[in-house]
Amino acid sequence: MEELSIFKGIANNDIIKMIKCFDAKKIEFKKDRTILSNVTNSNLIGIVLKGSANIIRYDYNGNRSIIESLETDSVFGKTFSYLDDDVIVVATSDCEVLLFDYDLLMKRCRKNCECHTKLMDNVLSLLSLKIIDLNERLEILSKRSIREKLLCYLNLISKKKGKKSFYLPLTYTELADYLSVDRSAMMREVKNLKDEGFISSNGKKLTLVNY
User: Fold this and answer.
1) When you count CB atoms within 10 A of the terminal residue's CB, does the N or C end of the chain come out lower?
2) What pLDDT is stored for residue 95 in this prediction?
3) Beta-carbon count within 10 A of 41 CB
């Protein structure tokens, strides 16, 4: 587990001890199963060890939106417990997660262990990255049109991948939920962008041509 960001700089033997000390649980979930809910598991923090998942929010009208797409090494949980709407984490593939109790994780170590201090530093770094992700999504949602939202999202993915061609991390249905737009209207705009030469595609692989 040393390759996981939350355990960066911590020896494997210390990781095993800390997992036992925090009473962390490694659990496997099948695709489409609910991993976590802010209603029933509001005090847990999870780490995706294998597979992928989505953080999904339902408002009081039952409208669905995807807050974040999670991949291996992603952290989730306590950060969305403050939301009034129902928020759940759903596996988008067979996956394995490690679940911690937030209070135990943040509790100061009586022995002031170096590895515990390092873990806290890593958690703070990951939370900082969460803030960056949130700002990116706010930037996307602040765009007025579907076209602007699409191009903003695709440009951000391109920058993260460091290349113009990349595979979409979401299905088109999930992307519509992430952008908070109607799927049919979004697909029409995708077609328009292709016809106008802004993008080309082959399945889920997209290439930014003139953007």
Assistant:
1) C
2) 94
3) 18
